[in-house]
Amino acid sequence: MTRRAFHHEPEAVRQNDLIAATLDSIAELGLAGATVREVANRAGVTPGLIRRYFDNKERLVAAAYRTFISDLTAAAEAGCGEGSANSKLAGLIRASVTAPVADGRALSIWAAFIGTVNSDPVMAEAHREGYQAFRDLIERLAGEVMAERGVTASQQEIRSKAIVLNALLDGLWIEISMGGDDFSRVDVVRIALDSVATLLGIDPAEFRE
């Protein structure tokens, strides 16, 4: 394998390339198979170079998890687009239940990571950060939608709805990413939009517009 000229690249690019190779390894081989040597082979570098940026595999995996969650959130947020608060939230919902956010590869990576959250404090912190960022986004958009429609609600009420809304999206994301005949025969986007509208007390037909 021809090794990449990492010494000619900025440090941030080098680290991103190593994280990408880590995520590819985890998607195909799981955490156990994503060894430092395997990641090095995929990135076209020596294992020693990986250790230059990450002290050990645990730190590399934690960095990969943070990147993975951040990228999923960014991809979902990209669906917001411009326009009213209603259209932004609806766009976020659509993006959250369709590819590339909801797909088999993303689920495989997430499933590999999530098993470490309760046993690894570093992974637990990465998980909290990722969860909080996405929930904050949902909370902000839900609050804006309710304000746009003249609905009075306290911040605690909005936060409570955001927690439930996030759990709803998590469940749909897992089911859709797993695939299967059930989801090939139904309009998952409409199901998600109608469920969110009902939770926020909005006419589903108006929310989908």
Write up what this structure looks like.
The chain has 209 residues and is an all-alpha fold. It has two domains: 6-54, Arc Repressor Mutant, subunit A (Orthogonal Bundle); 65-208, Tetracycline Repressor, domain 2 (Orthogonal Bundle). It is built from eleven helices and no strands. The chain has helices at 11-33, 36-43, 47-53, 57-77, 85-96, 104-114, 121-148, 155-178, 181-184, 188-200, 204-208. Helix 1 crosses helix 4 (57-77), helix 1 crosses helix 6 and helix 4 runs parallel beside helix 7. The longest helix has 28 residues, at 121-148. The termini are far apart. The model is unreliable at 1-6 (pLDDT under 50).
Give the topology, please.
Elements: H1 11-33, H2 36-43, H3 47-53, H4 57-77, H5 85-96, H6 104-114, H7 121-148, H8 155-178, H9 181-184, H10 188-200, H11 204-208
Tally the helices. Answer: 11
Count up the domains: 2
Indicate the CATH architecture of the largest domain: Orthogonal Bundle
Radius of gyration: 20 Å
Taken in chain order, the helices and strands follow as HHHHHHHHHHH
Low-confidence stretches: 1-6
Number of strands: 0
User: What is the typical, i.e. mean, pLDDT?
Assistant: 89
Task: Give keywords.
single chain; 209 residues; mainly alpha; Tetracycline Repressor, domain 2; 2 domains; 11 helices; elongated; disordered N terminus
